[in-house]
Structures are given as C-alpha cells and as structure tokens.
Here is the input.
Amino acid sequence: MYFGVDYHPEHWVYPYAGTPEDPESRWLRDAELMVAAGVNVVRMGEFAWGLYEPEEGKYDFEWMGRAMDVMGRHNIQVVLGTPTAAPPLWLTKKHPEILPLDERGLRQHEGTRHAYCLNNDTFWEYSKRIVTALAKALGSHSQLIAWQIDNGIGGHTTEFSFNVETRRDWHAWLKAKYETIQRLNDCMGTRFWSQTVTDWDQIPMPMIAPTAHNPSLVMDWMRFSSDTIVAFVKMQVDLLHELTPNARVTTNLRALSRHFDHFDVAAVLDFVSLDSYATIKSKSSENAMDIDMMRSLKKTDIKTPDGEEGFWVIEQKAGQVHWQEVNSLVRPGVVRLFTYQLISRGVTGVLYFFWRQPRIGSEKFYGGVLTHDGRGDNRVYREISQIGEEIKLLGPVLQGTKVVAETCILISHENAWTHKLPFQQNKFFKLRDHILLFYSALHDRNIPVDFVRPSEDLSKYKLVIAPSLHILGGGEADLLKLYVQNGGTLVSTCNTSLVDEHHIAPDTGFPGNLTDLFGLEVLEFDPQPPGEENHLTFKGAFPTSHLHPAKLWCDVIEPKECQALATYAKDFYAGRAAMTMNTFGLGKAIYIGTMSHQPFYYDLVVWLRQLCNLFPLLKVPDTVEVSMRQKDESKIYFLLNHQNSPVRIQFYKPMHDFLTGNTFQGNYDLPPHGVLVLDEQAVKT
Ligand code: GLA
Here is the structure.
C-alpha cells in the first residue's frame, strides 16, 4: 500500500533550509525522516512551472531530477504534478488574454494560482508545451509511478470564465448539441421573456443580468463548462499516456463540491484521488459520505500504480487548515482515526498534506507532518509514524480487498446544479441535507453504500435510494422502471422529476414519466417554512419509534394503484397519502412525499432491511463506525470510535486485531478515537 506525503522540495533550499555551499542538503534529512515514518511515496512539483521554465522556452528540470534521485536512494516513489495550476508570471504578462474574465466581464489578475481561462488556445498551447517538456525530461525517471494533472482543478470558483474564446466554444458546443437554431429555441423554451435567437452568435453566456437567466440555458452552461474542464484534463492525460505509457494518471478532486461533473473527469483518469478535509467536519457520517462518493466516481477500468482497484487520498490534511475563522488543532489520534476511515472505505494510497509547514507563502500555518523547525520530534510526526508502522502490517492484509455495497444512492451533478438555480420552491430544502439523512441512517446502521448516477446499471443493487431527483431525463426514468420491473426496490422522494433534461416541466403529471412506476400522481406540492411541521400517521407494518414530522416539503398525492404507508396528520391534505408503495413488475417502488427528521430515516432503514434482505456488517453500539473490505471469503472489519470517550463493545466470538495482534472476546472498551482492524477468519476458528 502506498503511504506518503506531499513534498515541496522547492521550499526547502537555501535560504530557507540547506546551506549556501549545499543549498539542497535538507532534502536528504527529509528523505531520512520520511523513511523513518514509513513513507514510500511523495507527490511533488504541482506548482513548479515558474521554476521549471523561468523564461519562455528555457527549461530547468534538473533540480526536480535531483530531488527524485534523493527519493530514489531512499526507496521512495514519486507522483509528479503537472504544473498548469500555477502559470508563470512571464506568461500572463505576455498573454494577458489567458487570464479569466468573471461574470461581470472583469479580469481576474495574475499573482496567485488558477488564473486561467480553460477555453483559451494560447493557454492550451503553453500547457501542452510544459507538460510535454516535463514528461520528456523526467518521465523516464526510475521513481516516477504516476502523474497528477494540474491541482485542485476548478478551485477558487474558477470553473467558469467569460472570455471571448469561451463564447466561441460555447456557441460551438451548443451548435453540436442542437444542430439547428429552431431546435435550440424549442428545447430551451426561449419564447419565455422574448429570448428567441435567430443566430448562434446571439446566445448569451449567463453573465450578470438584472434577474435570473433561463434555467435551461444555465444548465447547458454548467454542462459546457464541465466539458471544458474534462477536455483540458483529458488533453493532459492523453499526452502523458503517449509519452510515459507506464505511469498512471490521476488528479486531486474534492468530494463533489466543485461545479463540474466529477464522474466525467474520473472517466478520463486512470484512478481517482481525493483531497480530504475530514479534520474540519463534525459528523462522522458526513466524512464517510464524502469518501463513499469519491470511491463511487470510478467503478470500472481502475488502474492504480500498484494495480489495486482503489482510489487515493492524495491530500489528507495532517493537521488544522488555515482558512477557518478559528483553526483549532486536530486532537491527538484524530488524524489516525480519519486515515483509517479512508482506508476502511477503499482508499489504497494515503498521502498527507503537507510534509512540513512552509516558512514561505500564504499557507505557512497550515498543519503539516513536520512543524516549521523540521526536527521530527513533534506530535503529528509521531502520530504519522505510528500509522506508517501499522500500514506496513496492514498492506499485505488489505491487498486485493474492496468495499462491496448492495445499496446505492442516486446522485448527479446535473441534479445538484438544478438545486442551486435561483427561484427554488423552498430555499431551505437542501439536496445535500436530504441525501445525508438517508446516508446517515444507512451509515449509522453499518450498511455499506455506493453512489451511482441515474444513467448507470442498477441491477447489482438490492436497494436504490433516489433523494430529490428534481431533473430526470426520459432515458433515466426508463432505467429506473427497468430496475424495479426486474425485482429491485426503489425509494424516491418529493421533488422528483419535476423537469426533464431540457428543464421543461411535464404536462402528464408529476413525477414526470414515473406516475405509473409509483402508481400515483403528485397533484401539488406545499413547501413548508422552517419551524412549521405537519406530521405523519403510519398504517400497517411500518415500524415507528417516534412521532415523525413532515417538514420543508409536502407533496399532495393522488394514489392510483399504490398502497399508502403513511398519511399527513393535518392541513387541508390531512388523511391523504404522504408515503406509498407500489408493486411494479417484480419489484417495489416506494415514494416518500416529504422530508422528515433523522429518526424517521432510522425507522425506514429498519423496515427496508427486512424488505430487501440487507444485513448490517456487525452489531455494535451506534457510535462505532463499521466498514468492511473483502476479497473472496476474506473479510476485514474496521471499527472506529469517533467519540471522545471509550465505547464498550461486546464480542461474541474471538476476534483478531491486526494492529495489536491481540484477540478479543467478551467486553472490550474501544478507547476514544480508537481503531480496530479485525479479521473474520478468526471469528470462525
Ligand atoms: C488544496 C490544494 C493545496 C492547498 C490546500 C489548502 O487542497 O491542493 O495546494 O492549497 O488546498 O487547503
């Protein structure tokens, strides 16, 4: 298993380290400290363009070659970043048209990073040149195992630019999609507010305007901007595959927080990498959800450097961040806990950001493995070294193991974008919160979950949950029907299929194209202000532990063939169905026309578990997170205590812990932030 750090050798030369006589001498000490901590891989060079090419066409890759040699002498492999995230100042001085224009048409200036328009041909040209020169200079170095494209692409809200070249590409993209102006006008509904166009040139970019742009146009703009990012990444991937066929290619993504389609980017990469900010989140299920989303971006055709079918965390924060209002220290044991949370959910490479707190630049008080003094006797270094030791033990045990889920949650970026458009039915109704309610209920009951796009094959899942799929194409609706027809169980909710892929509302009833699947029609929907609630009255076998509210959104449902499982308790729709189930073909289609509080979703999971024959991984107290990686018959369980206090677990059979070598039976107190990695084989003996 790969275990390492993000290293910036360019920060650690004289006058910041080393000596005038031997300016790079610190690199050796760093490599020694890395080896002592169990490091076997570093990522380097993601912002080094200005040092690689200090003047146009004058390259200097030798210093990085020397840094790689130092790593080589210590048996440390290298991932090199392509440096396009930080174009050098001479380039933007010479070609200011590279700089992006924002939605007001104002230029974003040079002097930091990501100041580029990805539709600009000149920027593409220079990017190709530096990537080619880099790959030719260092691509055959013995230590190189992978490339990271750019860095944090789309970061600092640079997913969009409004340059002349962007307009040109936007029009070409629309032309390729719609072919005729007539079709564009029809699909976009441009006769609303007199937006009809007679020529491609007339189609606006959604720049600052008196009020909201046509949602159909905005959705295309999001798709176009996303395609631009994918094309830029792919351009670099293709170049690197051609020049260095043995090196794998990745890029560092954040869990679906940026405005481009992460699934599409993942499709052009060999493997996915994640920047993890676990240290700043409070709910363990929220972290787990981010990790599961990232694992789910690429389900097939995964090519990691060591052949594992996993994904990497290429920036696991080693300590506090520096951009919150208060950047508290990450408590002892918590970086270790989060590292195991990542590994337990399928990560096969862990790199910490960053090796040492830099003495220069704007991130100097960000947490690091080493502190500024670089001595290697600090708390975090010791914690990372402990993990390094443990990884040496675990690597062989985990080899070839994967996370397997029988439940999935449907998500799509398109849907997330529609939820962010202005003029929502209820601005307090948040898609991520809705997804998290379902996810947390499954997570807290230790049921593994994948995230899947509605266009993917669903047949391997026993249970599919589809929260608020506001936008749903006709083809996607057909796939949902096919899944249920063949015996699957689907749970959908309010705010589903209110518009099609062109953002046009159906005239055949809600949810569009799915009224037969659910055996009902949603006649009206009644968004509720925060603090106001209706209530659910349950019928039949649905187990309820609490009085469950109906909040934020209440569908007024006309049941047809479906059976009502719950009704509303009050208002003019009192007694009408709020939750239903319909048999469709061999499967079941469940519809929840409202949003409730977390305990409702716990009850729902208890009921669905029986309905779908799903089993929790292990029976432990709710506060212990359990995940599993498996290979054939071998099952490795991870138990994580996210609490500040010990949790008592009862083992009914002897369990073998790989980290300590101990076998547990009966009561065991898992310490605060404690981790167990247990083998099921031992359970059987
Ligand atoms: C991202 C970037 C890093 C660093 C961190 C700070 O993860 O990739 O270069 O700036 O953010 O949060």
Summary: The CA atoms of residues 654 and 665 lie 5 Å apart. Residues 215-243 form the longest helix (29 residues). The mean pLDDT is 96. The longest strand covers residues 549-559.
